[in-house]
Amino acid sequence: MSDAQQRIDQLVKSNDVVLFMKGTPQFPQCGFSGRAVQILKACGLGQFASVNVLEDDEVRQAVKEYANWPTIPQLYVRGEFVGGSDIMTEMYQSGELKTLLSQG
Hints:
It is built from 5 helices and 4 strands, in the order H-E-H-E-H-E-E-H-H. The chain has helices at 3-14, 31-42, 57-67, 85-94, 96-102, and strands at residues 17-21, 49-52, 74-77, 80-83. By secondary structure, the chain is an alpha+beta fold.
């Protein structure tokens, strides 16, 4: 495991909810990341850990390998990879994401 993957692993395991995204929750740098933030907020999540992959190219590449998922954003809940904005959208619409986030 690379240093970047170890950092990702620690972040994922030490936070209930982590969103790897382009930009920040306050200033998303792509539409998919913006949608992911809106979905989390709509589920009642006011605070969550986020990582701006645009600030660290090593993390940007490593997170794709970590989950074996080619795109960003990526959502992790209690150490488990959930998916990108398309999966988040489907889970939000079905109510599954809010249920997942409220467990714990």
